Amino acid sequence: MARPREFEYETALQGAMDIFWQQGYRATNLPDLLQAMGLTRGSFYQAFGDKEATYLQALDFYDACVVSKTVDMLNQCNADDATACLLPLFQPNGKEARGCFICNAMVELGSENRRAAEKANAMAGRLRAAILGVLTRCGEGRGERSPSDTADLMLHLYFGKQAMGKAGGSSNDWEARLRSLL
Amino acid sequence: MARPREFEYETALQGAMDIFWQQGYRATNLPDLLQAMGLTRGSFYQAFGDKEATYLQALDFYDACVVSKTVDMLNQCNADDATACLLPLFQPNGKEARGCFICNAMVELGSENRRAAEKANAMAGRLRAAILGVLTRCGEGRGERSPSDTADLMLHLYFGKQAMGKAGGSSNDWEARLRSLL
DNA sequence: ACAGTTTAGAACCATTCAGTACAAAACAAG
DNA sequence: CTTGTTTTGTACTGAATGGTTCTAAACTGT
């Protein structure tokens, strides 16, 4: 019994995720954010609260979409070659400039916004668990190093690549390197 | 034949480095910056130009102080145990919240400020070269992996740890992990 | 048709932003 | 002491910031 909203919540949220992902939290001002979301101020503040709340929701949306997709990919991966399963995490995709939203959030807000840090850590934990799953399914426990340690190495390499990639300073040929440590 | 300045340039620059390192570029406003540098606006704009120029100079100062110190440490390290030489790079120092200025600059400005990205990449290159020096001096070329690839792995692990550490989500016991891949 | 809600969009708000202008102060050279 | 030059700190500026308010429109249930 009221006027229906003219925008789709998820579409707007995806726009928020895109712009925050690409520009970061502080570098995204309200006009940027509103344009990316396709909203005007009235609708935005009523539906999303404020900029910070929207950023936190964008992190959740990243979790639900991007992280979940990556986790699925890892879970469905062929269980005979860990290198081949994990290599996609290190493959250039042409979007290095925006990096990884988790990594961006950790670096920009990790030390000052506890909730953002918690969300980022939770997503990193999901990635780590999926990597660990690949390693155990591929029988990577045989060497001297525990699969858990190997998963930590992989996760840190991944975030290192995402961070360095934003400045264009990360190398590209990861297959040999990954294979050498699996 | 003029009034001498009352502040020391290097001291002020170190203050700028500290605050930019801790808070990042955008999150540091001019009052923050001026207080950290111990200057008022007049002196600041005359001596340092503007905020961006000061940030770039702060990166250079980080290179000249922090990076150089780390590189020296690696260069002077005992040439018989690569793990022991590189472990300090991964040791907690109680200042995880500020992370690594190089990593912070890469993630915050790498994709939008070419000069900041170049400086960050140059510093990362210096770290990589020093790591590579440790590896070759310690005879790490024997395995199947080239020292160059191992240096890249180490560098990416380092930046990954710095990024994750800002959100408090990086694990701590690196000795076994490093030893397992050297 | 009407009443009751919620939307959308623009006008508006105080605050903060980076940067400038300027006048007083502090020195050195003569 | 005077002159010339630079530093310093305050006052100021216009633009941009995130956020609020208000009006009119759009819709639903009765």
Descriptive overview:
- The structure is a homodimer of 182-residue chains.
- Chain A has nine helices and no strands.
- With 182 residues, the first copy, chain A, is mainly alpha-helical.
- Chain A has one domain: Tetracycline Repressor, domain 2.
- The termini of chain A are far apart.
- In chain A, 66% of the residues lie in helices and 0% in strands.
- At the A-B interface, helix 6, helix 7, helix 8 and helix 9 of A face helix 6, helix 7, helix 8 and helix 9 of B.
- The first copy, chain A, binds a DNA duplex (30 and 30 nucleotides) through residues 1-6, 29-31, 39-43, 45-47, 50-51.
- Chains A, B: InterPro entries: Homeodomain-like_sf (IPR009057), HTH_TetR (IPR001647), Tet_transcr_reg_TetR-rel_C_sf (IPR036271).
- Chains A, B: One of its GO terms (molecular function) is DNA binding.
- Chains A, B: Residues 6-66 form the HTH tetR-type domain.
- Chains A, B: Keywords: DNA-binding, Transcription, Transcription regulation.
- Chains A, B: This is TetR family transcriptional regulator.
Percent of residues in helices of chain A comes to 55-70%
The CATH class of chain A is identified as Mainly Alpha
The total domain count of chain A is 1
Shape of chain A: elongated
Strand content of chain A: under 5%
Oligomer: homodimer
- Strand pairing plus helix content of chain A: what structural class? mainly alpha
What about the largest sheet of chain A? none
DNA-binding region (chains A, B): 29-48
Domain HTH tetR-type (chains A, B): 6-66
InterPro entries (chains A, B): Homeodomain-like_sf (IPR009057), HTH_TetR (IPR001647), Tet_transcr_reg_TetR-rel_C_sf (IPR036271)
Protein name (chains A, B): TetR family transcriptional regulator
